[in-house]
Amino acid sequence: MDNIKQITAGDYTSVYSCVDYPNVRICVRLDEKVDGDLLSEATQKTAERYPYFCVKLIRGEKEYYLEDNPLPVKTFNQNTSAALQTEETNYHVWAVCYYDDFIYFDVFHGLADGNHMFRMLSTLLYYYMSEKYGDAMAEDILTLEVPIADEEPTDPIDELELPETLSMPERQDPEHHPAFKCIEDGKAEAGEHVFYDIAIPEAEFVRFTSEYDSTPGNMITLLAARAFDSLFPNSDKPPVGNYFINGRAMLGAKNTQHNCFAMARMEYDRTVKAMDFREQCRFYREKTRFYASPEFVRNYMLSLAIRVNMLRQISSMDVREQMINGVMASIKPFITYGVSYVGKWKYASMEKHIKELWSHVVGRSEISIEMNAVSGNIFVSYQQGIKDEIYVKAFMEQLDSFNIPYKLVRKVTIDTGRGSLSQRQYLVR
Predict the structure, then answer these.
(1) Which of 28, 168, 179, 216 has the least CB density, counted as fewest CB within 10 Å?
(2) What's the pTM?
(3) Considering only 210-214, 293-297, 352-356, 380-384, which range has the smallest mean pLDDT?
(4) Which of 252, 255, 250, 345 is nearest to 298 (CA)?
(5) Cβ-contact 2, 94 below 8 angstroms
């Protein structure tokens, strides 16, 4: 059937191994109260522009698959998360909420990464602001006037040529060492997930990073590692950060909707710890360049494609899920935290109406850090599922130690609308 779609290679493991909170919430604070009627119209136009993302996720007898969803995408007047993939949201994988001066964009992470989410968000805000203010410019935004390119619904990882003989790649590089874990090694107590929203003036931070030949994303990754080390300097396990790399450009598919990222593994071991700060910055920058090279990204994606191809050949749904979850569990001991930075907001005509822009994501590691840059600030959301605040406080102390100005804007506790797949009313066929 034409309306049935297979889960692609880029999305496969994300769909099958969704964490307890698989949905992302992007929070946009505007300069005045949101007009719900205009936002609802913008939501429908956005849905028209991205018909390939208007789908239902179905659990079949042998595999998950996608089915076109003709029902309207919902807009809710609430500040709690939309219950995606339930009857309440017409079983869609995305929805829009608003409350006071905030617009909330809720998206199922299994089918999209931050780059596609922000592409859709730019379309949503364009249609809203063009009606609300009349001064929004289309610029590089995908609108209804822009034809849907073949690359948008296509997963470039599925397009890679696989070797004739498939073999499961090694899960861990032999040189990788177990990472410091907050609960196991730091004896922290698990708690509810909390987002600490921290605003850093962009000009000052960029000036600081440039002084050390670094980038905002690299610098936050390094400062986070130094924060862990400051708390447990004698730990025999180093803090390890995963810095996410957008792989689209390396695969020639800049507008693909699918998850398309590689990971740079940043290990703050004794050798790095012994370096002076400038050398550490240079080391992290060079590692990122290596992990972002076309050769590495292509090999990383080819390895993923081989894994998925082998998993597809397993006939039992339960065995496949157990195997994927086993692989994910085997990776966790090697990661302390994750850092993701989609980049600077590119649309100047809309930027003047945006006061804040936060990404609230619960990652697979104990701590995850999301970064956005707009309206003169870098908005850092530091998420942890740990009761003790020593980790986020140590991170802010690193900012203090380098005289980096910042403001803890608010603490946000995750709401129950973002429950796990097991709590969802999934369509089963």
Answers:
(1) 168
(2) 0.94
(3) 293-297
(4) 250
(5) no
